[in-house]
Amino acid sequence: MTETLEPGVRLGADAGTWRRIDGGWELRFERRLRHAPERVWKALTTGEGLACWLAEADIEPVPGGRMELNFRQPDHDFMPDIPEKRRQSNEVLTVQPFTRFEHTFGSNPDSVVSWRLEPDGNGTHLTLVHRVPESWEGARSNVLSGWHHHMEGLDDAVLGVRHPWSWDRWFALRDAYAARLESAA
User: Cα–Cα distance between 132 and 93 in angstroms, integer?
Assistant: First the structure.
């Protein structure tokens, strides 16, 4: 089912899903990317790759390694360009090259992101699973819209093409996810 909630915003088959789990929620996105898992892996686990679609990153891609993120979206009242709002200190938890990568997110050890990569013809089936803690209940639409918008540029980021951030796009996605969350309650 495709739902139009605002001009230009459609949540369809590529929309993130969520389900209640013990201690919070599990958010899930699936994408088919046109690149081999080895190339997608670089976009997920290297500073160069992450800077193209997510954030500037200083990363040690080994279990227990650090993953420092500095989000560089344009300055906005919602997220002013100050370190307290833009920087995250995370930890790498699992590294299984070309198949699975897990790390904490949001500087919160209870927030865990798992990336699963599977070969799919000449591309990759990518699954993101984000365990969101109970304390983030009011921010679920923010997190869903953030991952959705960031992942829109992941296919091109594999080629080194930076994905531009649009606050208008993010707010429209956030409103669409908020409506879905409300209707599911």
Answer: 16
| Residue 125 · residue 118 · CB < 8 Å | yes
Q: In this predicted structure, what is the pLDDT of residue 6?
A: 44
For Cα atoms 25, 141, 152, give the angle at the middle one, nearest 5 degrees.
105
3-class DSSP state of 80: coil
Residues in the chain predicted with pLDDT less than 50, given as ranges, are 1-6
Largest CA distance in the chain: 44
What pLDDT does 7 receive? 54
Give the Å distances, CA to CA, from 38 to 42, 64, 67. 7, 22, 20
pTM attached to this predicted model? 0.91
User: Degrees (nearest 5) of the Cα angle 47, 69, 177?
Assistant: 110
